[in-house]
Amino acid sequence: MLKPDLLIVGAGPAGMSAAVVAARAGLSVMVVDEQPTPGGQIWRGIEANAGTARGRALGAPYLSGLATVRAFRESGAVYWPSTRVWQIEPTLRTYVTGPDGTLMIQPSAILIATGAQERPAPFRGWTLPGVMTVGAAQILLKAPGTVPAAPVWIAGCGPLALLYAHQLVRLGGAVAGFLDTRMPAPLAGAARLAAGAVLRSGRELAKGAYWYADLHRRAGRYVRGVVDLQALGTDRVEGVRYRTADGRVEEVETSLLLIHEGVVPELHTARSLGCQTRWHAGQAAYVPVLNEWGESSVPGILVAGDAAGIGGAEAAIQRGRLAALRILSRLGRLPAGQEGAEAACRKALARALAPRAFLDRIFMPRENVFLPDDDTIVCRCEELRVRDLRGALSCSVGANQLKAFTRAGMGPCQGRQCAYTVASLIANVEARPMGDVEPFRVRPPLKPVRLCDVASLAEEAAPP
Amino acid sequence: MMASQATTAVIGGGLHGLACALALAVRGQDVVVFERSWVGRRASGATAAGVRTLGRDPAEIALSLVALERWHRIADLVGDDCGFHGSGQIKVAENPAEMESLAERARLTRDMGFDHEELIDAAELRRLVPMISPHCVGGLVARRDGAADPHRTIAAFRRTAEGCGVTIREGIAVTALEPDAGGWRVVTDAGTWQVRHVVNAAGAWGGHVCRMIGEPIRFGYKASMVFVTERLTPMIRPVVSAAGRTLSFKQSSQGTLVIGGGLQGSADLKTGVTQVDFHALAKGAQSARALFPAIGTVQVVRAWAGLEGAPADLLPVIGPSVRAPGIFHMFGFSGHGFELVPVVGEIVADWITRGRSSHDIGAFDVARLSL
Where in the numbering of this chain does the SoxA A3 domain appear (chain A) (predicted)? Predict the structure, then answer.
C-alpha cells in the first residue's frame, strides 16, 4: 500500500498550491484528481487552451492559472489524474479508482481541496432535459469547447453566471435573455461593505461591473428582479415562465435554460470524516469548522480552497499554501527560511477575501431557492417533491429520519442535490435556525463506485 | 418531583421494542418506550430486512416458522404489508461438496420434523434465479421466506403502537433501574418513571441494561455491513445466500441490489459510531460478482454498518431476568432478528401479563450467559 506523507484531493488552485509548497520542502505528496488535466474547475483545460483563441476568449483570470499549473507539474508531487477518491476512512485509509485500477492509500495527512459545487436551487421543471447549470455549461465551454448552437436563456445570479455569459459571447455564442434573480434590497445596506471592498479590491470589482455592463449590452433581454421560475415542457424544456418582484408573469421560449444561484463548499468529504461544520449565514452555506491553518476538527484532515468556504481562486492558492506549511511544521519538516512565507500568505489571503462579504451580500440567494413551492422536485434521484417531504416532516424529526421515511437522499447523488433544501424545510417546519439543523449523515462511499472495483480490493493484502 | 407512571417501560425503540410495546398495549397495558436517539436508529434501520427461516439455528426454527406465518399476514397486525414479499430464500451450492452439506442440512431439519427447507437441483435453481452463474450446482430453498422494507416496517409498527396508546419518548436515555415497591424506578435523563415491569430491548446495549440490574452477562456486538447499488430493472425475486460464502443478495422493490450477509465493519459502543471497512466489504462484492457475473459494472451507491448485540452463541436473549423480578429481556438477536419481530414481542408480553408463554424459549434463557 502507498504511504505518502500527504494526500491531496483535488488539483485546483488550492490543491496544486499546497502540493508545490509541500513537495518542494521534500514531503512525499500525492495529488488525486478526477479531471484528466490539472486546474480544477476554474482553470479546467488550461494547458490545452493557453495560447489559443479560446484561451484568450476565456479571459485573463483564466489564463493566470497557467503559472500555478506549471509550478505544480514541476513540483515533484505524484499526480494521478482521471482518478476518483471514493472513500476515506477515519484511519485516513483512502480508496481510489483510476486508469490503473483500484487502490488503497495510507497517507499521514489529507488535504481536502475539492472546491465548490453549485448551490442546489430546485424550481418547478428543473429536472427537464435542456435545463442545466451554468457550471456544467462552462465545463463544456472549456473542455471540448462547445458553444450552444442557439441563443441561451440564463437565470440566476452570482459571479459565475456573469462570467459565463461574458465568455460565451466572446466565443461566438449568444445570450437570448438573462433572468436576474438577485434581490435588489441588500445593495443599499451593502454600501459600507462596498466601500471597503472597492478600496482593497477595486480591480476585482471593476471586472465584475464590466461583466455586468457587457451582459446588459449584449443580452437580447435583461430582466431584473425575477423572484420565481418555472421550466416549461413535457419531455424537454420548451420555455421558461418567470415572475418578477412587481408581479409580472411572462413566458419565453427556449430549448436551453441555464441556471446558477451561486456556489457552496463541497462538504461531503469533510462531513463523511466527521469534521465539524457550521452554518455560515453570510454565505448561506454550511462550512467546515477550521482553524487559521485549515485544520479541521479531525486530526490529520485539513481543508483548503472553496471547500473551506467560498473565497475564489486567489484565496484558494493562499489557503492551500498555509495548509501545506502547517503540515510541514506538524511533521517537523518545515525548511529553514520559510519564516516569511506564512506572513506573505496571510497578507495575500486577506486581500483576496476583502470583497467577499460584499459579494456574499449582493448575491444572497432569494428565499424560494431554499423553500421552493410544494410542486417542486427536491430529490431527483427518488423523485420526491416538497409536498412529500413536508408531509413526512409532520411525523419525524430531523434529516436522517426523514431520509429513512422517504428515501430522500438515498439515490446516486447521495444527497448532494437535496441536502440543502431538506435542511431548509426542516428549519422552516420546526421554526429552527439552519445552524441547528443537522444535515444528512454522509453514508459511504463518497462517490458511486463500480462493484467490480470494490471486488478487486479483495485481492489486496489485508492492511496492518 | 412525582415520578411519571406506566405499567411497563420498554428500553429501546427498535422493531422488537415497538413490537413488544404494541403487544402489551393490545393486552391492555399502559406502555412507555424510551429510545435514546430515534425509533429504528440502530439495527432496525440498518438491517437488510431478510425474512428468513432458511438455515436457522435449530433452537430458533420453531419460533421463526411461527413468525413467518405472521409475516404473510403482517397487515393484520400493523395495517400495512411492510413491503413484504414471500419470494423465497435460497442458499446456493457452487460445487458438489457444498451441495452435500446442504443435503445434510435438509436431512437435519427433516429429522426434526420440519419441511420448510427443500433441496433443489441446478435446473430448479436456474428457474428461480435465471441470472445465477452457470457454475452453481443447486441449492436449499425456503419458498415462503422473503424480505420486507425495513423503513416501512418501522413506520408501520410505530404507527400501530402509537395508535394503540403506546407512548414513545425519543431522545431519552435510561441511566439507571432501581427496584421499588413491587416494581421499578426507571431513571432517565429526562425524569424518573415508576413502572411494574421493564422490557430490555436495548439491542447492542442489552448487556448494559443487564449490568444496571446486577445481572452481568457475557455479551458482544456485531457491526454487520450492507451495501446498496443504483436502481436496476427487476432481475431477481428470491433472496440468495451462498453455502461457501458470507453473502446475502437481494433486489429491493425500488430496484436497488441490497448486498450483505454479515461482513463486519467496526463500531464504538460508547459513541454508537459505526464504520464501514471497504477492504472487508470487497469480499462481499467479490462473492456477489462470483454468483452474478453480470453485475460487475453496477454502481455501489451506499454502504453502512449496523450495530447489533451478539452473545457468543449468536442466539437471542428472550425471557424473564433470573435475578431481577419484573425485568424481561429481548435482545441480542445477532443480526438475524428481523424475521422474529412479529412473534418475540408477543411472547414477552405473554410472560409479563400471564407469567408464561405457549412457546418454548428455554434456549434463549439469560442464565446461559451469566458471568
Answer: 384-454
B295 within 8 A of B283, measured Cβ to Cβ: no
CB contacts of B276 in chain A (<8 Å) are 87, 89, 444
A455 to B289: CB separation less than 8 angstroms, yes or no: yes
In a domain? residue B38: yes
CA B138 to mean position of chain CA atoms: 27
Rounded distance, CA B92 to CA B90, Å? 6
Q: pLDDT digits over A5-37, tens only?
A: 999 999 999 999 999 999 999 999 999 999 999
B180 & B209 share domain = yes
Asked if B19 and B344 touch (Cβ cutoff 8 Å), the reply is yes
Q: Within this chain, do residues B173 and B208 fall inside the same structural domain, yes or no?
A: yes
**Residue B268 forms contact with A (CB below 8 Å):** no
Residue A231 has pLDDT above 70, yes or no: yes
- Distance between alpha carbon B71 and the CA centroid of its chain, in Å? 13
- Distance between B127 CA and the closest CA of chain A, angstroms: 25
Q: How far apart are CA B217 and CA B316, in angstroms?
A: 13
What was the ipTM of the complex prediction? 0.93
Same domain, A244 and A212: yes
> Residue B180, by phi and psi: left (phi above 0), alpha (psi -120 to 50) or beta?
beta
Q: Is A298 on the interface with B (CB under 8 A)?
A: no
pLDDT tens by residue, B264-320: 999 999 999 999 999 999 999 999 999 999 999 999 999 999 999 999 999 999 999
DSSP A295: B
DSSP A27-80: --EEEE-SSSSSSTTTTTTHHHHTTSHHHHHH-HHHHTHHHHHHHHHTS--EEE
Classify burial at A423, counting beta carbons within 10 Å of its beta carbon; exposed 0-12, middle 13-18, buried 19 or more: buried
Tell me: pLDDT of A461 over 80: no
Regarding whether A91 and A125 lie in a shared domain, the answer is: no
Strand B183-188 with B174-180, pairing: antiparallel
Output the nine-digit C-alpha cell for B238: 428470491
B225 shares a domain with B132: yes
